[in-house]
Design a protein that fits this description.
The chain is mostly helical. The chain contains 21 helices and no strands. The longest helix has 29 residues. The chain is globular and about 90 Å long.
Length: 374
């Protein structure tokens, strides 16, 4: 009889409901919120859906998911901690990226650099608020609106913050259509928003093929710490522009990108267990994240306004907001806003220049931080 009682007690003790507490329920609400954004609002569903479901799974009590050599631990350990998935995602991004608009208007690089304003201001703010230098650097990169770069830098400097940092980055990326317009309107006049821009010059195939090679040399010699990310970006872009490996390009852009996106999302969500997430530091990260996004957007817009003081052909300041790395969402938001202000204006390709420049600028900032603090 005692043996049966012990057996029953053991079975009951292994039931998750016995260990359920309020913190798990709170994290379920967080998970359901991101699933709502993905399914109902269609905000970045390819990312928010697996992240949200990962949060939900890992907050089921006693679920054998994130212990050593358990399912989601394997995804996280070999994909994220080993920094494989962010680099593979950059390979896919390289295949999907057209650097033509940036090459047609090299001033885009300056705009992309200006959009990193929030990264450095937020770094100082988080450090003053008690974060270590490494933690402050990992939080500051959120404003660049580049999820893989945020994960890569955080894993290198402050692995414990991967969950809240990645969630903040992807959450605010999903809300780019809501965040950008009011900032643009606040910083520009109606007269500036209706500026018409001429069609960009044609960029030759030779230029497009040479750029990833020259870019890789420059990155490798100046910021080698970020070469795993940007090197894969340039490799993917070289495959695209060469035109001789169409099958490889299509695989990197479609099947491979889809696979690693699933693994990345659920692995990031699985780091968001209640024990590690429900603390003041995580809430501060979300607060600084939105502050960072606002400043980075403002930095890009203000950089265009500053450049307009010295150039003959004025640029529409709206395109400065595309200096965020949220490709191509930020550029599309700029296009839609420019069209509303002036139906004859077509800003998409002009905005794509700062947009892809922002990817390089954010990764470069991450590389500098790794070089300084690792």
């Amino acid at each position: 009889m005692e043996a049966l009682e012990r057996l029953l007690a053991s079975v009951v003790d292994r039931m998750g409901i016995i260990h359920l507490d309020w913190r798990c329920v709170v994290m379920w609400m967080v998970a359901f919120f991101f699933l709502y954004l993905a399914v109902k609002k269609k905000y970045e569903p390819l990312l928010l859906l697996p992240i949200g479901f990962g949060i939900f799974l890992v907050n089921l009590p006693l679920a054998p998911l994130m212990g050593d050599h358990e399912l989601l631990w394997i995804f996280h350990h070999y994909g994220v901690e080993w920094e494989v998935i962010p680099c593979v995602i950059f390979l896919g991004l390289g295949v999907m990226t057209d650097f033509g608009p940036m090459l047609a208007n090299p001033k885009s690089l300056i705009i992309g650099a200006g959009a990193q304003l929030g990264v450095f201001v937020t770094f100082l703010g988080t450090y003053v608020c008690g974060f270590t230098l490494k933690e402050a650097a990992s939080v500051a990169i959120i404003g660049g609106a580049d999820g893989p770069t945020t994960i890569y830098l955080t894993n290198a400097l402050a692995p414990r913050l991967i969950g809240p940092n990645a969630l903040a980055a992807y959450s605010y990326m999903a809300m780019v259509p809501l965040i950008l317009p009011p900032i643009i309107r606040a910083l520009t006049s109606e007269e500036e928003r209706v500026i018409e821009m001429k069609q960009l010059r044609h960029v030759s195939r030779r230029e497009k093929i040479l750029f990833p090679i020259i870019g890789t040399i420059a990155i490798g010699l100046m910021i080698p710490d970020i070469l795993p990310l940007l090197g894969m970006l340039m490799f993917g872009n070289f495959m695209r522009e060469s035109g001789v490996v169409r099958r490889l390009s299509q695989t990197a852009e479609r099947e491979l990108m889809n696979i690693v996106t699933i693994f990345l999302g659920i692995a990031v969500g699985a780091t968001m267990d209640a024990e590690h997430f429900l603390n003041p530091k995580s809430l501060l990260i979300f607060g600084f994240g939105i502050f960072d996004f606002v400043l980075c957007t403002a930095g890009g817009v203000l950089m265009v306004k500053l450049m307009n003081l010295f150039i003959k052909e004025k640029m529409n300041p709206i395109i400065g907001a595309a200096g965020l790395s949220a490709v191509p969402m930020a550029a599309r938001v700029c296009q839609d806003m420019g069209k509303k202000e002036n139906p004859r204006n077509y800003l998409l390709m002009h905005a794509m220049g700062p947009n892809v420049a922002g990817v390089i600028g954010t990764a470069a900032a991450a590389g500098l931080m790794i070089a300084m603090f690792k």
